[in-house]
Every structure is written in structure tokens, then in C-alpha cells.
Amino acid sequence: MPTKTSHKPHPRNAERKAEGIATRAGEHTGFNGWLAVKITNVVGTMWCAYAFAALALISLPAAIRGGTAPLIAWIAQTFLQLVLLSIIMVGQKVAAAASDKQAFQTYKDAEALLDISDDLHRLITINNQLTSEIHKVVSKDQPGK
């Protein structure tokens, strides 16, 4: 015997599907954001780190001739800051990509759980309706009720 369900999915399910997956695309706005992303994409490469290392090494002989203080200043101010900047940015890109992948997997898992929850709610509604119908039939069959 077919039953009608009065189950209505939560409105957030439709909103979530319409919104899609949140990404970093389009996060920057205007010229300043565009320029910042372009510079970051260039500076945050290992090729840029190699270029910065070569540039820093040009001034190394002068720092060595200057003695201990100029050499330490060259290491701290020129080499470490210039070269490590790009290397750290590359590492952050790699970590961000892994984080984005994990976030996407979590999103897909949450979406599946929401669908399962919606199906479960629909099945419980059907179960309740069928149980109610069974109670009606059983109570009619019992004498005195």
C-alpha cells in the first residue's frame, strides 16, 4: 500500500548545491588584488629563489672582504631574506594545495552525509506512516476496540 510522505528537504540543501564549492578563485578584487596575486605567483617559485640566490651571491665577495660584521649582515639581510622569502612562499603554496584538497574531501563527505541524513529523514517519515497504518489495522481487528 503506497504512502504519501510529507518530508521536505531542508532549504539549505538546495542553497548549498546552488552555491557550489567555495574556492579561492575571485577572492582578490581590483587592480591591487590582481597585482598582488601576479607578484606572489612570480616570486613564489623555486626559479625565482634560484635567481635571488644568484643575485645575492654577486655581493658575497665584497661581504667576505669586509670582515665578520658585513658577512653576517649579508647572510641575514641579503641571502636569508631574499632567498628564503621565495622558498617559504613555495612551501606555503604546497601546504595550501594539500589543505585545499583536504577541504574539498571534507566538503564531499559533508555533502554525502547531508544526503544520507535527508534519505534517513524520508525513510523515518515513511516508517512512521506505515506504523500508524499498522496500528489502525490491528486495533480494528481486536474485539472491543
Task: Give a description of the structure.
- The protein is mainly alpha-helical and 145 residues long.
- The chain has one domain.
- It is 81% helix and 0% strand.
- The chain has five helices and no strands.
- It has helices spanning 11-19, 30-43, 46-58, 60-66, 68-141.
- Helix 3 runs antiparallel to helix 5 and helix 4 (60-66) crosses helix 5 (68-141).
- The radius of gyration is 32 Å and the shape is rod-shaped.
Q: What attributes does this structure have?
A:
single chain, 0% strand, rod-shaped
Give a summary of the structure in a few sentences.
With 145 residues, this protein is an all-alpha fold. 81% of the residues lie in helices and 0% in strands. The chain has one domain (27-141).
- Helix-strand category: mainly alpha
Largest sheet: none
Q: Residue-averaged pLDDT, rounded?
A: 85
Poorly predicted spans: none
Number of helices: 5
Total of domains: 1
Tell me the series of helices and strands, N- to C-terminal.
HHHHH
* Assembly of the depicted chains: single chain
Distance between the termini: 24 Å
